Structures are given as C-alpha cells and as structure tokens.
Fold these 4 entries.
Entry 1:
Amino acid sequence: MSVAALLPDGRRLHLQHGPIDLIIEAFGEADEVRAAYRQAADVFAPLLDRLVEELPALRQPAGPGLAVFGPVARRMLAAVMPHAATFITPMAAVAGAVADHVLAAMVAGRRLSRAYVNNGGDISLFLADGASFDVGMVSRPDACDRHGKITVTSAMMVRGVATSGWRGRSFSLGIADSVTVLARDAATADAAATMIGNAVTIDHPAIRRQPASQLAPDSDLGERLVTVDVGRLAGHDIAVALEAGLAKADLLRSRGLIEAACLMVQGEMRLCGQLKQKSLPLAGSLRLERTGT
C-alpha cells in the first residue's frame, strides 16, 4: 500500500511504497502546488507494482536484445544503454528513473517556478527560466557534515543529481565513499555514478569484498564481488583509485553523458567538469537545500 502525505512542515510531500521513499517539493501558487502534488501521487501509486512485474528483465545485463515496457523501466534501460559495453543492468538507474518519472508527471501542465523529487539522494530537478537550486555537499552518503554547495541554475544542462559508493544504499564494485554526478536527468546521473563508482578501485588487503548474492540472493550483480569494508589506505593507494575513477568520469563527460562529478575516498577528492570551476571545499554527495531563487 502506498503512502502519500504532507510532511509536518506543510510544504513537502512524502510518497512511500515498499522500498521507494520520495520527498517532493514544488514552488508556485498554492493551487498549482496542490495540483502538482495530486499528479505526483496519482502516478506514484501503481509505480512499484509495474516495476515488480518487470524485475526479471530489469536484472538482466543491458543490451540491444533486452525488452522492457513500463515507462520507468524504459527510462532505466535508456539510461544504462550507453554503458552496455561493460556489465550493467537497468537496476543501476532505478532510483533516478523513478525520480524523473514522478517529476515529469507532477510538473505536466502546472505553472511552477521550481520542483524536485528526491529519491534517497538521487534527485530530479525542474527549474523555470531564471530559477536555481542550491545543493549542499557532504563528504559521504551516511554523513551529515556539510562542506560546501553548488548552485544549479536554469541555464545549466543539469536536471539530475545522483550519488553512488560502497557506503550507499546499493552495492558497489569500487571503494569510493561517494561519487556524485550531475547530468541532464537523474536516471542518467544514477547510471553514470554507478559506473564511475565501480571504477574507483584497487586491489589491496585492507579492502574486503563478498559476492553480491551472499548479501542479497536476488541481486542483479550475482556472484560479482562487491565492497563491504575498506580499511585505512595509504595516500598513494587512494590516489591510484581516484585517478582510475576520474579517468572514467572524464570519458563519460567527453561523451556528453555527464556534466560534472565529485569523487571521494577517505577525505581525498577529485573533481570533473563544472565542479572544477567552483573551488569547492571538501565535497562529496549532494543534498538539496531550500535556499536559492
């Protein structure tokens, strides 16, 4: 059973069904915001059931022969197909695709200045001309230490933010505490963050890995080794891992798949794209703030 209710602040909408937990906020006249929230709730209600129906296909490696049919499933597949030369399944983009789908439904026909759908840190943004969002930055997904922000404006090509890493909600093949990606939509950012996070890796005795299937029998990663613990690494080892991930991020940016990325391992950082020009302090995963115009 899905839940749809305003949070105690009276501004934000909470939508939850099974593992999907969304925080939504729209900005505009009161009637327009209420209508947008109704539209979001309506499209959300059947979403999980449709995804469950297609799970067998969504857990398969992406490729030209893979067929999916639901609107969220199609977003997922489209987001991962540019990475299909390397193992990836549509599940790598599920959080971002859900956020994009709900956002598209809630803004359709509405007069809003700004809106966002936050799916556990994977965020889909809507910005009318001249609007912006400030996105706060923390050093890793499970931390609350704010160390900077980036302003996403309507003039930028960024409408999606996603974070991956071994400390996050999903499994990672790499050792990044966080890889945060800014891209044209949340599903694209989600898939790219997964691939960059997987590339931030080295072989080292301080890194402990287990088959994904031992941790979650139905994981789309099967017997692939995922990171479960990372001990303290020397500076050289951290640099090698980060440079490998940065090379992947630079490649994806050269292909037009991402706008920027921030990679973090044990307090060390690498920046790709637009973030390089921001002179940010210690940064990592992004959290949406209420500031901005």
Entry 2:
Amino acid sequence: MNTDCEHSIRYFNRYTNQLETESVYGQGFLKWAYESVLGRMTTELIVKRALFSKWYGWRMDREASRTKILPFIQQFELQPNEFLESPETFKTFNEFFFRKLKPEARPIQQDPGLVVFPADGRHLGFADLSTVQSVFVKGQRFDLQGLLQQASLARRFERGTLVLSRLCPVDYHRFHFPVAGRNGGEKNGPRLINGSLYSVNPIALRRNLSIFWQNKRYLTEIETEDMGTVLFLEIGATCVGSVVHTHEAGKQAAKGDEKGYFRFGGSSVITLFEPGSVRLADDLLAQSEQGVELYAKMGDEMGRKEG
C-alpha cells in the first residue's frame, strides 16, 4: 500500500482482478483527526474514548437517522437485492448497518479442506508472523503479546499464520466462523480485553499499527478437530457502538455460521492459526507481500488446511 497519506487508499479486488480505489466514509474527518496536529490532539482527548463512540452510536439508533439510509446506499452503490429485508423496513441507520443478507448472497465454500474469510473486507495475510518486517509502512510489526495479553498464547502462535480483515462502514458487518469448531472451548466465551477506540482505517494505521493492541477487543479460542486452536479477535474502533455476539459460547459451530456483528462503524477481525496448520490463498499472499489489501467476501476461500 502506498505510504503517502495524500494518495488514495488502493486495494486489489479478487472479483475484478484489478486495483481499485477505496470509497472512504468520513475521509475528511479521518485525515483531519490523524494527520493534523489539532486533529491528533482531539483524537487523544475525545475521539478515542468510549463515550464518543457511545454518543455516535446513540445518534445512529435514533429514528431520525433512517433518512441517511437511501443516500448511503446510492453513494456507495450497495446492492439491496442482497439484503434479507428491504431498506424501507429499517427503523434506524444502525438497524440497516448490521443488516442480514440472504444466504445466497454469501455462499460458504463447502470443500472441507478450505477455510473461509470470516467477513467482507480488505484482507492482509501473513504465512509466518515471526518473519513479517512491515505492515502498512516500513518498520511496523505485530506485537502478539500486546494483542493477546497472554504470554503463553503469544509464544504458541508467534510463528503462526495471521489474517487481518478490515471492514469499512460500507461493508456487510456481520462476522462468521472461518472454520468449524467449538466456540470458545467447553466453557470460555469471548474474552474482553479493554482499551481505546481509535479508527482502524489505513489513514490511522499508517501512523500507528499498535492501534490493534490498544483498542478494545474480544478474543475467542475456537477448538477444531483437525487444525488445533484458531484464535479469533473482534477489534473495536471509533464509532463502533458495540460488538454483539450471537453464537452461544461453548457450542459447536459450522464453518460460515454467524458469530456476531458490529454496530455502527468500521472495524476489523483477526484470525490466527497455529504454525503449519493452513496455507493461505495465493492471491492473498501475493498482494500482502506487496503491502496491498485483497478485497474478498465472507465465505470465499481464505486458505486451505495443511496435511
């Protein structure tokens, strides 16, 4: 990805097989908040704090917010024929934001050897996290212990395979299981790791990758039959009203089952596999090696089980 903050955000679209420019919701505010001195001061004092996001989420829950729905659909060229319910039925913008889709709009790859993307978005994949020298800009690396907040897990996954899936406000905002497995093991549901709520847009991430281990997040250990433990994290962000988990902890999940959803705001999920358990898709690896995100939809191939 180009590190010049004046340039547009570019990603590679798996379906058109070409580089495209991202339509950024609130781009002017993001540039001000993360690229100007006054904006960065305001972000530290106000924007990163939970109260700001709760206030914005409250606005999106008001009935008056429904007037934003149709202009949003038109501006970002969404496809209402994919929606499970018609746009006119949503009472607030937030209801529209975490809308469900028709099952046929996001078919799940059924080949048992495949793992799938857990969400619509722009994805980066790293086959061996310990060898990654830069993410977004030179010198930025993942701090796995900071991300997981558990030293034993960090040691176990330090050579693991990581996929970062970044959701924009224009995306489908429900997230799903990338593999079949038990949700959180026998007893443990998602573990809350509290933190701030910075934006996860590349405008912010180019300056500071540590947003991922500073932001509020949830960590789930998915226990599988043939891939060991798969870690799954939902990362909160500015204006994310809340993360809602819809799948019961301790229960078995099929690949592609819904795990939960984000209320208003763009965010990210991270999937982390044990070393040697998965081979990522060729296009994901090829684009990530160039620092370019790959756009792909939930349910499509993310990789294949090894062995």
Entry 3:
Amino acid sequence: MNLTLSVGNMTDEPKIDVYNEHKKASFALALNRVKDGADFPRFVAWDNKAELIEKYCHKGSKLAIKGHIQTGSYLNMDKKKVYTTDIIVDEIEFCDRKPKDEQPTENPSDTWMSIPDGIQEELPFK
C-alpha cells in the first residue's frame, strides 16, 4: 500500500506550471517530527487540486494531505541522473481558520430563534 497522511504548513508560495494543458502545483510542507526537528517533503498537485492550491494557499497555509509517494529521475544540465521523490496529492483539506476580518461579527447566540409562545406542548421533547 502506498499511502501518506501529512499535516503541515507551506514553506513558501506554491509554484504553478502548466504541462500539456494540465495545471501543476508544487510546494513543500513543514512536517514536525514526533521527537525533534521537521521534514520538508515536496508535494505535487494536478488540475483541480492545483487550481485550489493556487487560489487559496500561500506561505504558512496549514494543510492536511492524503497522497501517495512517486519516485522518478531525470538528467540535469551536466548529464547526471537526478532522482526525485514527490508526494502526489490525492485529497486536500484546508486547516486554517478564517482570517479575523472574515469572521462573523454578530454574537452566535443572537442568531438562534426563540420558541414561540404556546408551542411548547407540541414539541416532541421538553
């Protein structure tokens, strides 16, 4: 089984590219280790997921990602083989809270509707 679950913060702005009409978003997340330190794996999202990342994510965004590991290789300019390991994004959850300026300003208790008089007897609970 090839499955990864990661929760972390974006280390930089996502890099957006287009290949054969397919949008690609590349980015790294800072993933805290259980003990000391952190890891910074590279993630790749395609098409709709890449568009979501481009539109809603920026440096510092907290994401939860379900994905799978993909390895590959290419020849660099010096004709040396370079090996890559990426996590391909299968599912993404945005974990950031809304900014304070987007939070509702009204008190949530003000939005509850009062029970009209005389309806108490009709309610299935008391």
Entry 4:
Amino acid sequence: MLAEFDGDLNFSDGVSWGTFYSFECAEDVPFMTPATLATADQSFPAPIRADEDVGQQAAFGECQRWGVTKAADGEKAPVVSDIPTMVLEGEYDPVTPPSQGDLAAQTLKNSVIFRFPAMGHGVFIYNFTPCASQIFQAFVDHPQQKPDGSCTTRLPEPAFT
C-alpha cells in the first residue's frame, strides 16, 4: 500500500505527509463536497482559483486511497473552554489565517491573541523570534495574565528582493 503513496510520503521538506493525510482525510475532506469547494473557491482571485480547485478536488481521490475513518461530526464543533489559552497568529499565514485564530478565541473565555506581523504559519515553531519566545514564556509562567506583546510592534516587515 505505501508504494501507492511514494511521492506523497517524501519527508525531506520537514512535512510528514502521512500525518497530513491522516488528519486531512479524517477531519476536513469528509466534510466537503464539490459544491462547497466551488463556493469556497470563489474567494480566490481568478488566476489562483483553477489551481486551488484542482488541488482540493484531488484530495477526494487521495483520501479514498488513504482510507482513514471520518472523524465524528463533533470534531467540527468549536472548543468551548475557560482554560487560559494563547493564540499566536502570523499575519500572512496561508494555512490558518488570523481570522481563524480570532474565530477560535471567541469560545475560549480566557484567551489572549497575539498577531505577528510579516510572519506566516507556525509563529512559534517555524518563524521563531525572541519576541515569540518572550510572550510564550510569560504566558507559561503566568497563564492568568496577558503577556506584554509590545515586541510584536517592533518586528520588521519582510524584505522582498
């Protein structure tokens, strides 16, 4: 069976595609239909729309081959909690854009949000900065207090060359 996915299981870029497909095929794809994808695709600019549509439509076939069980319908319900929670958002995150962090925080009673300018996905993991480290450590040390996030205002915009 793994031979079918030879190109999909390349770990050289640091992404575990097996893990990706296991989650994607259990938690996302089974809740989509071609019609919902077509509606969502309308949010993309026309030059991007065709490529995005092809990629998403291909997920249906990939997931049939991957063969994981669909997650329970409750997986799509928002988490409701009063546990202190910190949400770190990258301004340019294409995977989980800031709007999704904002949405998640709505049902997390004791949440704090920090948006990092000029950063993408994985603010603390992939875009590690001393600023993110300071905020994270302050939150771990005192989860009931909102950490000082003023360092985010001093982070530079990306340099496009």
